[in-house]
Amino acid sequence: MASVASPVIFKEFCPLYYLLNAIPTKVQKGFRSIVVYLTALDTNGDYIAVGSSIGMLYLYCRHLNQMKKYNFEGKCESITFVKLLSCFDDLVAVGTASGRVAVFQLVSSLPGRNKQLRRFDVAGIHKSSITALAWSPNGMKLFSGDDKGKIVYSALDLDQGICNSSLVLEEPSSIVQLDYNQKVLLVSTLQRTLLFYTEEKSVKQVGTQPRK
């Protein structure tokens, strides 16, 4: 006899004031007071990552109820995309409005895990706003897409502290979504969706009609 599915109950949750109150609404830059806008968001079971218009990444640890801050050196620019990953180490990738991409390898208190914060930079391939990021499940591959249609593959060696990046695909319109699994990268742009086979470096379009 087939079991009867339990009814779906909708719940309304209040705003995360404990998180929002830990992020300033304004910061002082010289004589100017600058409003802080929240520009990017990603979550998993361990963290809530929030990007801001002042180039600051706010990372809230859900187990310790602690907020930490990470930023880019140099120019203060808006964060446009963040992507978390929990594998052997906790990683967060961050993209900005000018095309900068950085990976933060987070500190863990667990035995055998990373004990020092490290940062990896995707050097100078993107020249425009980052619109999508996608991890491989093991954290060794990161794909980044921008609003000019460029997709960059970055190979990370966390043990050696090395990040090697290369341009793998260039589309005529903005990248809006990336997802990676089993050597296949799913790419959505403003005009089409395609599968990029990373081993063969071949492309297969999903559907035949362009998006309007």
TrEMBL record:
GO terms for biological process: protein exit from endoplasmic reticulum. Pfam families: WD40 (PF00400). SUPFAM superfamilies: WD40 repeat-like (SSF50978). InterPro entries: WD40/YVTN_repeat-like_dom_sf (IPR015943), WD40_repeat_dom_sf (IPR036322), WD40_rpt (IPR001680). This is TCPR2 protein. Coiled coil: none annotated. GO terms for cellular component: cytoplasm.
